[in-house]
């Protein structure tokens, strides 16, 4: 069963088998994330050839050359197969059983271990969408719909900025984690705090948040933990 994760890729090693269009897209994606990338292929796209990067190595060779492939898989944290030949998947999978790497089959959504989703980002809110191979067009459409919703809803961004401040402030004040967990819900549900956020007055919302933290910590307010974070 697959679960969604965000993984720090800086310094990680990625082997991509296939130097065509899909392999090129994957190579650029991992390079942009700070990974070291090696592309194994008999041919390479012009874009890959022109993509000069100290973290990119193009290796001309046959995927079925075991002596060439084994040390590359040994080196890799993630192996992407981006060619049409499904038999290559089986060959790579057989070798990788004894190695500690994850497999991304760009040509087989059922057998892949790692899914590369469509990504979106707006004002510090990052998200990913996948249909796990059912339809890339639909996944892209959903991604664009979420982006459109975020662009039209300033309150979400105001809320994020206010809550980020609250989190950093409480950590700086060395407030115990169990108390912080309660305060996230208490303060985010406070009527005055929400009104300030909805109006976009983030500065006043931050000041109120600091005041409320002190009130709760010093016992002048009782905890009534709520989990309703919807905007009114």
Key traits:
single chain; 232 residues; alpha/beta; Rossmann fold; 5-stranded parallel β-sheet; two-stranded antiparallel ribbon; 9 helices; 48% helix; disordered C terminus
What does this molecule look like?
It is a single chain. With 232 residues, the chain is of the alpha/beta class. It folds into 3 domains: 1-116, NAD(P)-binding Rossmann-like Domain (Rossmann fold), CATH 3.40.50.720; 117-152; 155-217. The chain has helices at residues 21-32, 46-50, 66-75, 86-96, 136-152, 154-172, 177-188, 191-199, 202-217, and strands spanning 13-19, 36-44, 56-60, 78-81, 102-105, 118-122, 125-129. Strands 3-2-1-4-5 form a 5-stranded parallel beta sheet, sandwiched between helices. Strands 6-7 form a two-stranded antiparallel ribbon. Helix 1 (21-32) links the parallel strand 1 (13-19) and strand 2. Residues 227-232 have low confidence and may be disordered.
Summarize the entry for a quick read.
By secondary structure, the chain is of the alpha/beta class. The chain has helices at residues 21-32, 46-50, 66-75, 86-96, 136-152, 154-172, 177-188, 191-199, 202-217, and strands at residues 13-19, 36-44, 56-60, 78-81, 102-105, 118-122, 125-129. β6 (118-122) and β7 form a beta hairpin.
Any chance you could write out the topology, listing elements then pairs?
Layout: E1 13-19, H1 21-32, E2 36-44, H2 46-50, E3 56-60, H3 66-75, E4 78-81, H4 86-96, E5 102-105, E6 118-122, E7 125-129, H5 136-152, H6 154-172, H7 177-188, H8 191-199, H9 202-217
Helix pairs in contact: 6-7, 6-8, 6-9, 8-9
């Amino acid at each position: 069963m697959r679960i969604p994760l965000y993984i720090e890729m800086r310094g990680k090693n990625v082997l991509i088998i296939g130097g065509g269009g899909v392999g090129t897209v994957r190579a650029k994606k991992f390079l942009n994330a700070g990974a070291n990338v090696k592309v194994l292929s008999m041919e390479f796209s012009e874009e890959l050839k022109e993509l000069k990067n100290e973290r990119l190595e193009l290796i001309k060779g046959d995927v079925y050359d075991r002596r060439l492939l084994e040390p590359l898989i040994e080196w890799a944290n993630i192996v992407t197969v981006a060619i049409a030949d499904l038999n290559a998947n089986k060959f790579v999978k057989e070798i990788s059983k004894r190695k500690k790497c994850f497999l991304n089959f760009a040509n087989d959504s059922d057998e892949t271990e790692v899914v590369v989703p469509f990504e979106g980002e707006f004002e510090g809110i990052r998200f990913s969408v996948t249909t796990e191979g059912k339809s890339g067009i639909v996944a892209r459409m959903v991604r664009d719909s979420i982006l459109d919703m975020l662009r039209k809803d300033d309150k979400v961004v105001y809320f994020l900025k206010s809550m980020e401040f609250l989190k950093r402030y409480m950590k700086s004040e060395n407030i115990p984690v169990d108390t912080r967990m309660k305060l996230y819900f208490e303060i985010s549900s406070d009527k005055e705090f929400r009104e300030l956020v909805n109006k976009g007055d983030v500065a006043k919302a931050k000041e109120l948040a600091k005041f409320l933290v002190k009130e709760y910590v010093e016992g002048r307010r009782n905890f009534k933990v709520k989990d309703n974070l919807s905007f009114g």
